[in-house]
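Good morning C.,

I know you're traveling, so I'll keep this short. The sequence:
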Amino acid sequence: MDIATRIALFSPQDATALVLLVLCWLGIGYAIEHSPTARPSLSKLMAQYRREWLVQFVTRTPRMFDAQMIGHLRQGAAFFASASMIAIGGGLALIGNTDRLAGVASDLALERAPVFVLEIKLLLMLLFVANSFLKFVWAHRLFGYCSVIMSAVPNDPDDPAALPRAAKAAAINTTAARSFNRGMRSVYFGLASAGWLLGAPALIITTLLTLFVLWRREFYSQSRAMLAEKTDGFGA
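The tokens, ready to paste straight into the viewer:
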């Protein structure tokens, strides 16, 4: 089977659904990370608290709480990185044995797709999971860098190196959180891509549903509303 024949196995509706998935994934990420000042996203509001955390860190004694916080952040990134690795292994195993999956997919979609089509659909899910794995690993490493920089911050606010080093730690912490959030979005859209196993209409529905969930959580959730309140000097 040549390339043209394999491409012909996919309909224009499949291409539309796939383009929509990629555009929604990239678009929501850009909207979250470049949200307007008038209405910042939940992630952007949390970045303000991360910076304030490291300012308060300068004068906090002892610093056990801060060490525990960094430890929890690293554990979270490590957990999701490990889960992504397991998912990658499971996906590769499925690609090697698509017969059972083909039967389930045909029962649900009322049609039996060629094995090649199922492999491509599984590969799409694996690409999202692989991207999330790389993001989680990088976030874990950056949180480690942050802990090293925090250890170098003097515990004396009058020390000229205290606030600049705290600002560096805050910047690394925020970058790590951004990478972690990107990994989570890849997980969400990786799950959405599973809808393609049931056909292009199902992929469109799961993509739009995922986009709605992320948009609501970042811009219209109750958590975001509480963080945006101006009672503590932060917020929109």
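Safe travels,
E.
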